[in-house]
Amino acid sequence: MASAKEVIEKARKQSRTVLTEMESKELLRILGIPTTQMMLATTKDEAVALSKKVGYPCVLKVSSEDISHKSDAGGVKVGLADGEAVGEAWDAIMKSCKAYDPKAVIEGVTVQDMAKPGVEVIIGMSTDPQFGPVLMFGLGGVWVEVLKDVTFKLAPLTKGDAAKAVSEIKAAKLLEGFRGSEPVDKAALEDILMRVSDFVAKTPEVKEMDLNPIFAYSKGAVAVDARVILGE
Ligand code: ADP
Ligand code: MG
Prior knowledge:
The protein has helices at 4-13, 21-31, 44-54, 83-100, 142-147, 159-168, 172-175, 186-202; strands at 38-41, 58-63, 76-80, 108-113, 119-128, 132-139, 150-154, 206-216, 221-223, 227-230. By secondary structure, the chain is of the alpha+beta class. The longest helix has 18 residues, at 83-100.
């Protein structure tokens, strides 16, 4: 496994400040944050072959440094049941991404295992010019835009800060078990917050991180999408 420094160096050498999802998730793995399994396919045949290794249902996502909001470009296909569906998804992704941005350089697609549904939350980090790294926690998916139910904490976080972040959002009830659903594993979310906080506190060249969404379960949590941005 590469080190965090090596992952960052690689992007730097290519004069990139935005890490791909694959690189961002590699960083998460190094930090001990659970993510989906993923492999890069650069041809349709390769995507089909890799999907057999990943297993079904699987997910295909466009990999392009020019497309950072993948679903806006029609670049995400979930719930693919077999090799044939993967081949069709490849065609559909290429078609809509090229229409979305004809100039985009498309590296290929990532083939990922499909995470089982959970409560969608988001953990982010941005850099305030005055206060430095700030961690954000809130509801994820569409809700982050609709409800803007998020809370901010200055890094480095204490364990108390992390616990507070997870319990002080307005929709905390959704995490505590709602209408008979099981409560989510708050400790797993606090652990991710702490790991991101520790990492950014010692890695000032990381300017922004976005784990959106994280699927939270009654046991554990998994980052389904990730984006890391370096400073200039
Ligand atoms: P975007 O770049 O548009 O944010 P995402 O990677 O977040 O793309 O994918 C969009 C949505 O697709 C996610 O919010 C999630 O609901 C679903 N999704 C993406 N990857 C997976 C996966 N590996 N397993 C299950 N669902 C996924
Ligand atoms: Mg996302």
